[in-house]
Specification:
This protein has 769 residues and is of the alpha+beta class. Helices cover 34% and strands 12% of the residues. The chain has 22 helices and 20 strands. It has a five-stranded mixed beta sheet, with helices on one face. Strands 5-4-18-17-16 form a five-stranded antiparallel beta sheet. A two-stranded antiparallel sheet has the order 6-11. α10 runs antiparallel to α11. The protein is elongated. The protein starts with 11 loop residues before the first helix and ends in a 46-residue tail after the last helix. It comes from Streptomyces levis. This is Transglycosylase domain-containing protein. Keywords: Carboxypeptidase, Glycosyltransferase, Hydrolase, Membrane, Multifunctional enzyme, Protease, Transferase, Transmembrane, Transmembrane helix. InterPro entries: Beta-lactam/transpept-like (IPR012338), Glyco_trans_51 (IPR001264), Glycosyltr_51/Transpeptidase (IPR050396), Lysozyme-like_dom_sf (IPR023346), PBP_transglycosylase (IPR036950), PCN-bd_Tpept (IPR001460).
Length: 769
């Protein structure tokens, strides 16, 4: 059963209590005790009524909760959110009819009496006594306003609401004292203005402006006489006189108000008669509250903004304090969302992945050098129906996201950046066999080492058997060679990699620490798209990492005033040298030019990026950037159950899904639209020398010019690594498949790479190109 709110109908018990309260109050007034100067009331019921003089002198009026507007970077509205739908307006912006109607029906002597209407009390007492029930109330408009203040202060706490509306003599006396104070301090016009802004009109509408827009889709200043009368009539009992659910009852109540307006001389009897013949003329606007109403598919971005507000200490010392500001509302929040980029992201997502598909996609775009989040979208809309979700697939768990997804080979550039910062030359060559055991031992942080299990060593392999070394950094990155990058992290140690990841803001989506295992080089740790997009923005900005931000400015309206609130600022710091970033940019340009990300390349402007496909094809990625935008696209099953094999996505069939095929084109179309009309910026090119002779042949028989793969089947993995560039049988080889074909699997149900591979925690995880 819904709780009774201000203006709600009274039960028989409540009517009796009100009748008693009016009677006692009338007696008190008649006894000359209605003024503060008289002193104690002396009403005998012990504990039920406080001494009049002992009541607090000042009524604390909390700021009225209002709707909050969330805007994009251009000032366009994304969504409206509120705990109570209210827009505070001055009296001059309310129709004179609605002012007269509310006074006529609720307190016709409002301008003649003080805080309490003695004649009204006596008249009500006499009429109620003769009828044996509460046929007429005695509260003035000022007293009703005070009660509404109590209700507003109670918020949505049912216990406090009950206390604020309880039919007791004590509450009536408190109400009276505060009404006297309000009359002295505000005056009649301000009281009427406040009353019309605070009172509840049903259908989630608080205040006359929200009510006018809810029932008639117009402003309160444009209400005609019959519309004003309808709204004034609702106040007494919003549920009983709800015109949406009971038109006949609402019409009768409206006509009572019109008749009363004629009786007190606000309108003529002819006007009243004509207005009573008119239909209600409803033009109902449905309540539009919350991020579910966001435009441009920005519901999840809207939700992220809310999470930022509730979690960032800049908005208050505690979450409770921040929530109070948020619920109070009246905020205008201008965000960093670029409408062009958001449109492009949602358009591309819709073209490539359907919301009813077995898998989903999430995409995020950020601005290098500022950390501004420009776009955030996903294929499963914000909602509660089938194929909808409230989980933001683009962000970390602490910000309303899930557990994250293994980024696969999109993590490899972070390993390369750590190696370059450690002094490794950009033309470094490793033997890179097709299959090998993880080298051991490998140094980790705090003087620790990682050891492979000698009895059952964890192994890894490349994406197909044609990928055998030797490789240098440029070719290994373009082809996403797993064994190359594992040899690299084993060479420099794990700690430089986890340190670099931290500098670039790369953390696990669930908040856990990054484990000290070499398999992290292959992207075994679950990340969010926002994390990966912002990390790659570090490369685009030549090594400067900036924390992500979603809010540009916040202003709050309190009463007639507006004030600016402090907002979180992006903090930028150098994660790597410009030379290292420029080198990574050169390496990743090769990925989109002639590597695994060729389908993601942009026409007419330089771009760089990296593909990623995880074990068992639970996830596929493309993360890329230009000098002025960086974006990440993930495709997969959020529940980590559906492998992307023999699957239809966006109406297209795929025998196998990988980063260059599905996420790559999504990224290309998204970034092309987001960058349209933007300046074409170029990377700072650096020369990356070849580490090996690139004129070698690729004979099928492994003859002259063929490669020595450094291994001999399943048992030769270590030989290739330890023996260097020779050893094992020839596998010179023809060209591999045009796209990666992962073949090394992890057990069903495996979620986190560090758990696979025995006690070493060095799982193969998601690590393919």
């Amino acid at each position: 059963m819904p709780k009774k709110r201000s203006g709600g109908g009274l039960s028989p018990t409540q009517q009796a209590a009100k009748f008693l309260g009016v009677s006692v109050l009338a007696g008190a007034v008649l006894a000359g005790i209605a003024l503060p100067a008289v002193g104690a009331l002396g009403l005998a019921a012990k504990g039920s009524v406080e001494s009049f003089d002992e009541l607090p002198a000042n009524l604390k009026t909390p700021p009225l909760s209002q709707r909050t507007s969330i805007l994009d970077a251009d000032g366009g509205q994304i969504a409206t959110v509120y705990s109570r739908d209210r827009t505070v307006v001055p009296l001059k912006d309310m129709s004179p009819y609605v002012q007269k109607a509310i006074v006529a029906i609720e307190d016709s002597r409002f301008y003649e009496h003080g805080a309490v209407d003695l004649k009204g009390v006596l008249r009500a007492l006499n009429k109620n006594a003769r009828s044996g029930e509460v046929a007429q109330g005695a509260s003035t408009l000022t007293q009703q306003y005070v009660k509404n203040v109590f209700v507003e202060e109670a918020g949505d706490d049912p216990t406090k609401v009950a206390q604020a509306t309880q039919q007791t003599i004590g509450r009536k006396i408190r109400e009276l004292k505060y009404a006297i104070q309000v009359e002295e301090e505000l005056g009649k016009k301000k009281i009427l203005e406040n009353y019309l802004n605070i009172t509840f009109f049903g259908q989630q509408a608080y205040g006359v402006e929200a009510a006018a827009r809810r029932y008639f889709s117009k402003s309160a200043k444009d209400l005609n006489v019959q519309e004003a009368a309808l709204l004034a009539g609702i106040v007494q009992s919003p549920s009983r006189y709800d015109p949406v659910n009971d038109e006949a009852e609402a019409t009768k109540r409206r006509n009572i108000v019109l008749r009363r307006m004629a009786e007190v001389g606000d309108i003529s009897r002819a006007q009243a008669a004509e207005a009573m013949k008119a239909p209600l003329g409803l033009k109902v606007s449905k309540p539009r509250n919350g991020c579910i109403t966001a435009v441009k598919g920005a519901g999840f971005f809207c939700d992220y903004v809310r999470e930022v507000f509730l979690t960032d200490p800049v908005f208050g010392k505690s979450r409770k304090a921040r929530a109070k500001i948020w619920n109070q509302g009246g905020l205008t929040i201008r965000t960093t969302m670029d409408p062009q980029a958001q449109d492009a992201a949602q358009r591309s997502i819709k073209d490539h992945v359907y919301k009813s598909d077995d898998v989903a996609t999430a995409a995020t775009v950020v601005q290098p050098g500022t950390g501004k989040i420009l776009a955030m979208g996903q294929s499963r809309p914000y909602g509660f129906k089938k194929n909808e979700t409230q989980i933001n697939l683009s962000v970390d768990q602490s910000m309303g996201g899930g557990m994250g997804y293994q980024p696969g080979s999109t993590f490899k550039p972070i390993v390369a950046a750590a190696a370059l910062e450690d002094g490794m030359p950009s033309n470094k060559v490793y033997s890179s066999p097709y299959r090998m055991a993880y080298p051991s031992p490998v140094s980790a942080c705090d003087g620790k080492t990682w050891q492979n299990d000698r009895s059952n060593p964890a192994r890894l392999e490349n994406e197909n058997e044609s990928e055998v070394g030797p490789y240098d950094m440029k070719e290994a990155t373009a082809k996403s060679v797993n064994t190359y990058y594992v040899q690299m992290i084993s060479d420099i140690g794990i700690c430089p990699v986890t340190t670099m990841a931290k500098k670039m803001g790369v953390v696990r989506a669930d908040g856990d620490k990054m484990p000290q295992v070499p398999s992290i080089a292959l992207g075994t740790q679950e990340m969010s798209p926002l994390t990966m997009a912002n990390a790659y923005a570090t490369f685009a900005s030549r090594g400067m990492y900036c924390t992500p931000v979603a809010i540009e400015s916040v202003s709050q309206r309190v009463g007639d005033a507006s004030k600016k609130l402090e907002v979180p600022k992006s903090t930028c710091s150098r994660a790597m040298s410009e030379e290292t970033a420029d080198t990574i940019n050169g390496l990743l340009k090769g990925v989109v030019e002639d590597g695994t990300g060729s389908k993601a390349g942009l026409d007419g402007r330089p771009s760089a990026g990296k593909t990623g496909t995880t074990d068992e094809r639970y996830a596929a990625w493309f993360v890329g950037y230009t000098p002025n935008m960086a974006g990440a696209v993930w495709v997969g099953d959020p529940a980590h159950k559906r492998k992307m094999v023999n699957i239809t996505i966006g109406g297209r069939s795929h025998s196998k899904v990988f980063g260059g095929e599905v996420p790559g084109p999504i990224w290309r179309d998204m970034m092309s639209g987001a960058l349209e009309g933007k300046p074409v910026e170029r990377f700072n090119d650096v020369h990356i020398p070849d580490g090996i002779d690139r004129d070698r042949g690729d004979g099928d028989d492994g003859g002259d010019g063929g490669r020595d793969d450094g291994n001999n089947g399943d048992n030769g993995g270590d030989d290739g690594f330890i023996g260097g560039l020779v050893g094992g049988n020839n596998n010179g080889g023809g060209g591999g498949e045009p796209f990666p074909t992962p073949s090394f699997s992890i057990p069903e149900g495996f979620f986190r790479g560090q758990d696979n591979g025995g006690s070493n925690g060095n799982g193969s995880g998601g690590r393919f190109g």
